Amino acid sequence: MSRCPHCDRELPGFQTLCDDCYEKRRVEIEKPRSLIQTLQHFVANPLAITDQDVMDIRRMPAWFVVCCSCGGLLLCWFGGWVKANGQYAPISDVVLHGTLLCFVISLVLSLAVARRNLHVYWKAASQAFFLWSMGISGNFWIGSHGLRILKW
Ligand SMILES: [Zn+2]
Fold it and tell me: Residue 16 carries which DSSP code?
């Protein structure tokens, strides 16, 4: 006599799943998630962070988090500098304004994705911050260079 691998119930004959588990499986497969459910899952956990991921995030070394944060800040500053077309001093109001803008956008986007429900994973957020600031400063770069091409 074999047993159902899901609920440990004894199985008659050569069945590999009991009727209950088979039925549950069938319903899960046949009923795809509705759009609203998918959306809810996305809003609650945008990166689909699993428990395994949380363990990995906790194991992330501190130096890596510091590097991501500092790298992100540097990228923000670079974003501010290219946004000003590189025509201002590296530490001028115009550049710092662009830096702040890049920083705020990156930070908000990072906190928006690196979480499950309302729990933010700071270490993951630092990584996300680095990637977002890269994207946004890149965007600033394209923006300023695009404008320069238009001026020609
Ligand atoms: Zn079963």
Answer: S
Domain that holds residue 147: 49-151
- The answer to the question of residue 31 being in a domain is no
Give how many domains the chain has, as a whole number.
Answer: 1
pTM of the predicted model over 0.90 = no
Tokens 């899960």 correspond to 28
Report how far ligand 1's centroid is from the alpha carbon of 30 (Å): 18
Rounded Cα–Cα distance for residues 38 and 145 (Å): 39
What is the whole-number distance in angstroms between the Cα of residue 8 and the centre of ligand 1?
6
Spell out where 1-152 has E strands. 2-3, 10-11, 115-116, 119-120
Q: How many CB atoms lie within 10 A of CB 120?
A: 15
Please check whether residue 24 lies inside any domain of the structure: no
Residue pLDDT, tens place only, 26-67: 887 777 777 888 888 888 999 889 999 999 999 999 999 999
What does 89-121 look like in DSSP terms, one character per residue?
A: -TTSHHHHHHHHHHHHHHHHHHHHHSEETTEE-
